[in-house]
Amino acid sequence: MERKWWKEGVVYQVYPRSFNDSNGDGIGDLRGITEKLDYLKDLGVDILWLSPVYESPNDDNGYDISNYRAIMDEFGTMEDWETMLEEIHKRDMRLVMDLVVNHTSDEHEWFQEARKSKDNPYRDYYIWRDGKDGAEPNNWVSFFSGSAWDYDEETAQYYLHLFTRKQPDLNWENEQVRKEVFDMMKFWLDKGIDGFRMDVINLISKTPGLPDALVTQAKNLYQWGGEHFVNGPRFMEFMNEMNDEVLQHYDVMTVGETAMVKPEDGVEFTNEEDGVLSMVFQFDHMEIDGLPGSQEGKWSVQPWKLSKMKEIMSDWQHTLNGKGWNSLYLENHDQPRSVSRFGNDKEYHKESAKMLATWYQLMQGTPYIYQGQEIGMTNVKYDSIEDYRDVEIHNWYNEQVTEKGKNKQEIMHSIFVKGRDNARTPMQWSGEKNAGFTPDEPWIKVNPNYTSINVEDQQKDEGSILNYYKELIRLRKNHDVLLYGSYKLLDPEDEQVYAYERELDGEVALIVANFTKEAVEYQVDSSFELKTAQQVIGNYPNEEENGEQLHLKPYEARVYIKT
Ligand code: ISL
Ligand code: CA
């Protein structure tokens, strides 16, 4: 396995709108990020990934870009951005920018031109079709509810948008579009950035003719059309072109956000010989508490089993070992908070947050930390739908409650558990007003628990989640076995303890994590020989164990290394 800086580093995702407000307008900004670089350096972070900071009308908080080469006014200026980059590099950290090129904003100049007339030179930058029998060109459902098509009066045609109607899909079949995207990528790379996180990149190629999706949910008007755009026919061709034209000329990392891919796809996309990305974000473990197949499945709240989690994670670990490279994440700006989802955000808040960190960060791959995860920020419950800001949440609520008359409590419950705003509440810096995020009204309400969960308190507390993260990050970097070692799952059927081993050149690490609030006896596979190993980290004080039987406390995690 080739050594790479992006395999050894830890990535921290910043959602700029909610990170730190430097000028008191209630919105996080670039100067706010620069102010916190020492905090991030101290945490041990090597790479920063910024969610989009480009000019945008913010229908989808920056994932709808109206100018790829300009900074959003609310976030600051290009100069602020350049200062931030300089300060990042000064601290030996790197910057990864978000690349959103499946779609633009409808306010992008290209779309403004395109919609003017059928023979406008920009028309073919997007995907336009005539209606079919007085309705949409096909039956695809949008990721964010309703049809994936919108009718444009001006030219009496429909345009495709897999996300909101203000996010028209770019037509990647058009060579000119690809050239524009590649030029824009060079623009940022030449400014000195260190990589891209590529938004829904495996949706860029659509089946020619855009055929109807199979009707899988007859009760619904629109159908999930993934078979016609997930890893579409020309996806690899486009990515190879992007590599030839752009990426191979720079020392960068890339991470593709690729929903609905299997480990075999992960190998194809990330292998060292002819892969097209450094790594991908897979979603199998994020779908464990929903139903597969469509976006609607996400909103269904399902119980999950540890044995299933083992199957998913181990499948990715085994299949990519020695061939590709994994990303390791439990949270991002689209997902609920992991301590609320997989841990215990009540009496075992601290223990379970540390356990989860230990468990996922020591697998093979590059760990990602989402802002606030390092202090165990939790899900939020707003009383009123009005307090939510996310377009996906509002579309879902309107469709289900307003249009279909579904039970309001039930829909609000799904929003509490799965809604994206769980991750978007302001970063909790201190116990001061508005969590120290902003002096005035924040754009979205703070989570009221900021008085007990915040950075300032945790910095002072040696046993805090924050300090544990620091220790864990340092530990991983100091042991090659934790970076490059192989992965072996132990006890696949055990529903309480997730245990696995890493091995490199005879050195073995054992990671044990109790996922329950009960004390559990765990029998270690005797080939590990606990007696000869050393415990290197844990979320309770170290205990001398006799024999191969571990007495695990609620949500306890331990790591042993044997050389
Ligand atoms: O949000 C999701 C689960 O709730 C995902 O299905 C998400 O919509 C999908 O992973 C795509 O996400 C990315 O592209 C979207 C944007 O809204 C997300 O924030 C972004 O991460 C459209 O650009
Ligand atoms: Ca601001």
From TrEMBL:
Substrates-to-products reaction catalysed: Hydrolysis of (1->6)-alpha-D-glucosidic linkages in some oligosaccharides produced from starch and glycogen by alpha-amylase, and in isomaltose
Main localization (coarse): cytoplasm
Subcellular location: Cytoplasm
Broad enzyme group: hydrolase
Signal peptide boundaries: none
Keyword Cytoplasm: yes
The keyword Transmembrane helix is assigned to this record: no
InterPro entries reported for this sequence: GH, GH13_cat_dom, Glyco_hydro_b, Malt_amylase-like_C, O16G_dom_2
GO CC annotations on file: cytoplasm
Domain Glycosyl hydrolase family 13 catalytic: 13-424
Assigned keywords, A-Z: Cytoplasm, Glycosidase, Hydrolase
GO BP field: oligosaccharide catabolic process
NCBIfam families according to UniProt: PRK10933.1
Protein name (record): oligo-1,6-glucosidase
